[in-house]
Amino acid sequence: MLLTRRLLQLFVGLFLYGIAIALMVRAAIGVAPWDVLTQGIVKQTGLGFGLVVFLTSVLVLLLWIPLRQRPRFGTIANALLVGPFADLGLHVLPQQTVWWAQGLTFALGLLLLAVASGLYIGASFGPGPRDGLMLGLHRRFGVRVGVARTAIEVTVLAIGWLLGGQVGIGTALEAVLIGPMVAFALPLFAPRATRVADPATDSTTTSGTPTGTPTGPVPTTTSTAA
Predict the structure, then answer these.
(1) DSSP designation for 224
(2) Is the pTM of this model over 0.70?
(3) pLDDT in the model for residue 220
């Protein structure tokens, strides 16, 4: 029963994560760094948003190989499902153009992102591809997770912006708020877990396992990635 509950929690979390990304994209006031990169690639290639999310996840997983980082079940599920779920949300949700509707849609997306991250992390099936990359850099080279996270996110944000991805107030709000919001949501979905800050990794651990989200948030003081 416990495994069934964890699997259900994982898949619900991934579904909601994709819908949360779609909400923030439709709000059109800026998205998270990895989603800025996705938008930029979509603009330059004409590929679908979900397909680019998937291809980016595969590319990031290839970078795990020299880092000797091993994917877990949740990592693979993340790579396969978040993109299609985001595409589903983008197909159903309308583009927002009125300022109050944009703000409301973005706020709903950000809240849903935190809940989805809490569900996904609480299921304890392993980090998403992007968080695993940061953890791999830490374990292989001793780079602090906070430093690796910031360097990677600044890089993908800059590339995404140059490619035409949308950077705005939403990008800043997501960076500042998602960490504390995920930290608040996590105990709701992993109530028996011991959550402690690990000074060696700058990450929060749940029952001794480094946590991470699908396309990004580790509940720390550093900002998240999509």
Answers:
(1) P
(2) yes
(3) 40
